[in-house]
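Hi R.,

As promised on Friday, here is the backbone we talked about, encoded as structure tokens. Could you run it through your design pipeline when you get a chance and send me back a sequence?
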């Protein structure tokens, strides 16, 4: 989970306040100490941390406030202040029918990957997206954009090897301008253009001049700065400099899942009034989320984030494939191939731990990570086993139980065990039987006896 340590500390502090009979000085000091430590470890500005703890003390030590009201005020204060230092309200990237976004950033920020992620995100939501590569500085930039675009099935326009050879004596800026001219008519066919630009080790005069010229030529709808979360409070300097020199419209923060400094990056952007539109929360192409401070705090406090979960599902799943499976189920068909497709969809959505953190109430279930990892490994093995089966075995799994030599062959071919194959078959049979029962519930007429039978038969047995 993002900022797991900070979330645990805040949840613990709020729980102590809520459960306390009396809020004495010793308890308040301990809660303040824990919150201070977690915020500082998350790289939040020390001044903001001090301001928050002073406000907690002011309410906690006020003898005129009744104990019950005081507890409610403290919980609300912690929530509201964390919300404030994260930027307060959410900022939506409102795109007109024809839009373009120019991405800026220093070396190593994850700019090119973010462009592909955002292109995939908007393509899933009905936009006709094209990626334009103008980073003629970094040798591998064009090839990286090409690979990511092909992976996400997005149209891309880049400098070809022939272009590069022909224009090798030109400056990087001139080469970028030539590319804009070359693809000008092609780009008009798309309603969202995402533009990759060159970076530098720092915001120097050459970079500013190049970006200003590209900005003047392209006239993008938005200019977005991409920054990695691990820069921490340095994000404030970057956001300020880019905003002053190039009038950026907002920020996307990458690598939110892999650093303890993410709190510093988020709060630094809030301090500079640079709205954070999206955050990168993993390595997979669909792991990018709109940034909503309120939802973010809810997840930190273990309250889940259903909106983020729904976005996650929409980005990760193939709606066409899902519809085909639903149609087959409606016809009473359910084979191991359908089960395999479901496992594929689940795998695209990321780790179980991350998904459970988005479901309200589930983060408090305290499911051991080892158990989740074991379940993920089991599903991976099941996928391998199904891949090692013949078409006949996939369509008619019943023959495996009659011819056990087939099970031994599949286990050997997939690197699994016969026990795992038998467990897969057992789960498949129960799911198929459940689907058969459900097919008897037509037009919303649910038979109570059938429901009781299902509940009794499958209670605790389905382990997918």
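Update: got your reply. Pasting your designed sequence below so it's all in one thread:
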């Amino acid at each position: 989970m993002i900022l797991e340590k900070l979330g645990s500390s805040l949840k613990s502090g709020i729980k102590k306040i809520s459960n306390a009979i009396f809020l004495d000085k010793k308890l308040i000091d301990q809660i303040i100490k824990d919150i201070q430590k977690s915020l500082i470890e998350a790289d939040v500005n020390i001044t903001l941390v001090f301001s928050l703890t002073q406000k907690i003390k002011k309410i906690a030590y006020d003898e005129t406030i009744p104990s019950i009201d005081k507890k409610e005020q403290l919980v609300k204060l912690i929530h509201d202040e964390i919300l404030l230092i994260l930027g307060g309200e959410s900022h939506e990237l409102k795109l007109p029918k024809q839009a373009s976004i120019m991405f800026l950033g220093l070396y190593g920020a994850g700019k090119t990957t973010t462009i592909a992620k955002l292109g995939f995100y908007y393509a899933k939501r009905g936009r006709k997206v094209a990626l334009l590569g103008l980073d003629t500085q970094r040798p591998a930039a064009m090839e990286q954009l090409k690979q990511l675009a092909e992976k996400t099935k997005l149209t891309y326009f880049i400098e070809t090897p022939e272009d590069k050879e022909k224009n090798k004596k030109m400056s990087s800026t001139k080469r970028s301008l030539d590319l804009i001219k070359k693809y000008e008519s092609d780009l008009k066919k798309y309603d969202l253009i995402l533009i990759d630009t060159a970076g530098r080790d720092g915001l120097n005069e050459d970079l500013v001049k190049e970006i200003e010229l590209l900005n003047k030529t392209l006239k993008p709808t938005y200019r977005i700065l991409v920054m990695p979360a691990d820069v921490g409070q340095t994000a404030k300097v970057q956001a300020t400099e880019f905003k002053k020199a190039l009038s950026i419209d907002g920020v996307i923060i990458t690598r939110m899942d892999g650093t303890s400094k993410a709190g510093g990056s988020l709060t630094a952007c809030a301090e500079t009034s640079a709205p954070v539109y999206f955050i990168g929360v993993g390595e997979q192409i669909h792991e990018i989320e709109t940034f909503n401070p309120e939802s973010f705090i809810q997840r930190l406090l273990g309250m889940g984030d259903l909106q983020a979960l729904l976005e996650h599902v929409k980005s990760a799943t193939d709606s066409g494939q899902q519809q085909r499976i639903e149609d087959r189920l409606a016809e009473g068909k359910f084979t191991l191939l359908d089960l395999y497709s479901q496992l594929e969809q689940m795998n695209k959505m990321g780790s179980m731990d991350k998904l459970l953190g988005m479901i309200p109430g589930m983060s408090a279930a305290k499911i051991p990570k080892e158990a989740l990892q074991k379940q993920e490994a089991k599903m991976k093995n099941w996928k391998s086993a199904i891949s090692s089966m013949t078409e006949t075995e996939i369509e008619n799994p019943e023959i495996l139980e009659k011819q056990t030599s087939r099970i031994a062959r599949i286990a050997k071919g997939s690197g699994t065990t016969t026990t795992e194959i038998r467990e897969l078959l057992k789960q498949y049979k129960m799911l198929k039987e459940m689907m058969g029962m459900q097919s008897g519930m037509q037009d919303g007429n649910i038979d109570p006896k059938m429901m009781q039978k299902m509940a009794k038969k499958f209670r605790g047995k389905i382990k997918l």
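One thing I noticed while checking it: Strands lie at 99-104, 129-133, 155-157, 192-196, 222-228, 250-254, 276-280, 288-290.

Thanks again,
M.
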